[in-house]
Amino acid sequence: MSPEMSTVHEIAKILGESLLPLKKATSSTNAFRALMLEMGWRIEEIPAPIADLSARITQLEESLAAISGDGEDAGLYEDLVTAVIELIDAIGDLKNEPFDPTLEALGFPARISERLVNYLLVEYLRTHHSRVNYLLEIFGVVEISYEGETEEASAHKKRELVWKKFADALQDPGRVFQLVFDWGSEEFQDEFLLQILLDLALSLRLPAYLEELDESLRELLGEAADSDEPKFAIHLPILNTTDDDDVEIKAGVHLATVPAAGGGLPGLAILPYLTGEAGESLELADNLYLTVEGSFSFADGVAITLRPGSPVETVQGSSGSGSVASVSGELSLEIRNEDTEGDPILLIGADDGSRFEYKALSLRGGLSLDSAGNADLYLETALEGGLLAVKAGSGDGFLQKVIPADGISTNVDLTVGLSKNNGF
Questions:
Q1: What is the pLDDT of residue 27?
Q2: Residue 424 and residue 422: Cα distance in Å, rounded?
Q3: What is the DSSP letter of 274?
Q4: Would you tell me how many other CB atoms lie within 10 Å of the CB of residue 233?
Q5: How confident is the model at residue 322 (pLDDT cuts 50, 70, 90)?
Q6: Overall pTM surpassing 0.70 (yes/no)
Q7: CA distance 231 to 212
Q8: What confidence score (pLDDT) does residue 73 get?
Q9: Higher pLDDT, 311 or 382
Q10: What is the H or E stretch that residue 300 is in?
Q11: DSSP-assigned states of every residue in 181-240
Q12: How far is CA 15 from CA 2, 118, 396, in A?
């Protein structure tokens, strides 16, 4: 029977797993050289101070292996905490160790500690918690930037965790979004945003992909139709089926960017399409469902544009005869994560220890539009049956003194919505 994992133990396990790739990276000269190239350094041999980390890396590996078996006790988790702390301290002390004069000249000792830990943590998130990683990228907590080749470094992708932006995102997520993507300026990083949103959609197992827009959709967005430069958008097809009368039903959405025009800054455009009526619920993965509801009389005939500092606008396309297409109807999409048996879903932690869990988590968006062009666009997210529990565990002496024996917990139910017509 596994011991009750405390918050400290859970964090130590995550940190330990993220640092463990150092075992392989320091196992051979070739493996170490590959890691350094990934981080921008051309180093042919393993420096002695880094080779000296091997004993602590082995200690970490053994501690992680010990807690993965059956019958472990709380003392094994304390061994893991100690192993993680000692390895992180040793990595931090690399700046005080003697290195080859060539590496000293590159500033390697002063930079390796922080760069190495950042690299390992970001790669761990990307590999094992991709959804969390892409959300953190949207808010700038995870930063991945391309660094060109210089005399001192090879070309590489720099990974960085900016913890200050995590606090900023909790206080003012809109402001962080502006800083990360230059939203609200002529330098809006539209391709960067679309790539992260596409990665996030794929991590959620949504059938999204990049698609080149045709001439009619480019004109709808104010793009020059005769431009030689292709225009891409994220395409999320949702339905392609027939009803009981063999009437074809297609539904989906494009997400594209719009250029600066008429004094307005560059922004985003949502292009929904639906033919017929829809009322379908699709299982995307275990406990993850997509529901589509609505009835529209258009296909690729409307775009909802969002520009910073400007009201949401609805742009209607051409009917093909040169006149403005008449479009009307409603469309809503909901992604819902819940267990059909009603059991809580564990987001982080352990079932019998410190944890955050919920009964359901949903994201719902929709559009209603009448034939006169009056539109309402809304987005709503809801957390149902949330529970945050903190337990000291058998190894946390200090926490046992300040937290009751059965721990502390709080229920969390939250719904946040934003509508063009009704506001926040």
A1: 92
A2: 7
A3: E
A4: 21
A5: very low
A6: no
A7: 6
A8: 67
A9: 382
A10: none
A11: HTTTSTT--HHHHHHHHHHHHHHTT---EEEE--HHHHHHTT--TT-SS--EEEEEEEEE
A12: 20, 11, 18
